[in-house]
Amino acid sequence: MAKTATKKPASESGEKTARKPNAAFMKPLQPSKELGEVVGSDPLPRSEVVSKIWEYIKKNNLQNPENKREILSDDKLEPVFGKKKVTMFEMNKLLAAHLK
After folding, report:
1. Residue 74 and residue 58: Cα distance in Å, rounded?
2. Residue 53: is it exposed, middle or buried by C-beta count within 10 angstroms (0-12/13-18/19+)?
3. pTM over 0.85
4. Chain centroid, CA 47 distance in Å
5. Distance between CA 69 and CA 63 in Å, rounded?
6. What is the CATH number of the domain that holds 95?
7. Is residue 67 part of a domain?
8. Which terminus has fewer CB within 10 Å in the chain: N or C?
């Protein structure tokens, strides 16, 4: 008796399938006036906003040297974050309030 081969789904057979970009992350959003001071006033995708914030943080040496997970706000970031010190984990939540 001959066995017929059945095709397994890509996830079971170990084949890689191309991931589709999530349209919600790629949609350009308008930054608030405060956030615009740091990333520019043009609409940007959320991922690009986060990248520009990290560029700004590193360029201005705003990571806490004792705890790299903490970001120390300067005069431009404090209106965005609302406090002097935030963790990188709260940063995305705080940025969401400044994107429409």
Report:
1. 12
2. buried
3. no
4. 4
5. 7
6. 1.10.245.10
7. yes
8. N
